[in-house]
Amino acid sequence: MSQQRAFLSRVSSSSLGLFRESRNWARRERGEVEEEEEIDGGGRDGALEVPGEEEEEGGRWERMPPELIGEIVQRVEAGGERWPLRKDVVSCACLCRRWREVTRGIVRPPLETGKITFPSSLKEPGPADIPIQCFIKRNKKNSTFYLYLGLTQTFMDKGKFLLAARRFRHGARTEYIISLDVDGLSQGSNAYVGKLRSNFLGTNFRIYDSQPPHSGAKASSSRASRRFASKQISPQVPAGNFEVGQVSYKFNLLKSRGPRRMHCTLECPVGNSEEDSPKPKAHSGGVPLVLRNKAPRWHEHLQCWCLNFHGRVTVASVKNFQLVATADASQPPGVGDEETVLLQFGKFGDDLFTMDYRQPLSAFQAFAICLTSFGTKFACE
Predict the structure, then answer these.
(1) Closest CA to 359 of 330, 323, 328
(2) C-alpha–C-alpha distance, residues 177 and 187, integer Å
(3) Could you read off the pLDDT of 296-309 as tens digits, one per residue?
(4) What's the fold here for domain 132-371?
């Protein structure tokens, strides 16, 4: 209820008028007032009453006409271009089931809008034209990594928290648990969304999603793949560990000069069209997406390898990379070409890294790929 109260206190005055109309309508439906009776906004200073905690979910908000709910949500959606104002859109979906259905029908996916709104947006592809700009904070003390959505074009904002990951050692292997909650970094947590597992040398990684990438997908047969209560992303499907990608680093046995060389194979989500349902679909049965790191050029004056990060990376590091699609006509449609950067990652401060991604990658997949870059790889450098 506190989230509802916070939302109602932020609703614009024009939307309050619509709320008053709806309350009058609901009262007339219950026979509490006559059709002609005029009712004011109610409450002190005309503020709209907030349903008490004793009211059921199917209360006054549930009984509002869907057309009126849609009008309110559209106004809130139009006024919340970026976070933190976008909290109002989420609050609309939290009022009750009917509001949630209407809100999800109005709010378009990141592929169309470039906006991250709900937790499910983290597993939907980003926009095709302009990448979504994020950044990662690293805490070396507890081997934890935090993904934030950039709120401005500078490196000064605090950002909107999206995902967290923690690195664990299992013998000679490394595993990263990815979660929606900084306090739920375990596979048994409701906030668990996936994981990353390395080989003995730390040169090959497998990406696991807590949800199936397509219908008919089978969970990993490993002992750690038992089902968990991961309900935040999509409660309609079972949770488990489904392999959705691999990342490998090429051996550099001759110790030749140059950055690390990466190769990624992914199953990517497919964006929704206007006629589709708001739920994300998945790339099923087709050719997986193949990415490789963009080759840098040697700068004679600086005597180093260079890539153009367009001001988003300011510190030279072996971890910096840009990924492009391989030149293959069988690739999924809309991936771009060998010059279109689909994911770039690089350092801009102490334990601070940028992460910019676009279609067909999702925030979850981009974050998992970037996590593979952390850690020393003696066989590759």
Answers:
(1) 323
(2) 7
(3) 777 667 666 677 78
(4) Tubby Protein; Chain A (3.20.90)
d(CA 80, CA 117): 10
Tokens at 173, concatenated: 């292997």
Q: And the tokens for 336?
A: 């771009």
Domain segments of the chain: what residues? Answer: 2-107, 132-371
CA 45 to chain CA centroid, Å, is 39
Q: What is the pLDDT of residues 106-155, one digit of tens each?
A: 999 999 999 999 999 999 999 988 999 999 999 999 999 999 999 887 77
Beta-bridge mates of residue 160: 149
Query: How many Å apart are CA 193 and CA 374, to the nearest integer?
Result: 20
pTM of the model: 0.76
* 283 half-sphere exposure, CB direction, 13 A CA radius: 25
Q: What DSSP line would sit under 316-341, residue for residue?
A: --TT-EEEEE-S-TTSPTT---TTSE
Tokens 């926009």 sit on residue: 127
Please state the length of the chain.
Answer: 381
How crowded is residue 85: how many other Cβ atoms within 10 Å of its Cβ? 12
> Containing H/E element for 356?
strand 352-357
Compute the distance between CA of residue 70 and CA of residue 179 in angstroms, rounded to an integer. 32
Tokens linked to 191? 């906030």
Residue of 224, 342, 280 whose CA lies nearest to 104: 280
Long-range contacts of 136-142, Cβ-Cβ distance < 8 Å, separation of 24 or more: 136/345, 136/352, 136/353, 136/354, 136/355, 136/367, 136/370, 137/351, 137/352, 138/351, 138/352, 138/353, 138/374, 139/351, 140/351, 142/166
State the DSSP H helix or E strand holding residue 167, giving kind and residue range, or none if neither: strand 160-170
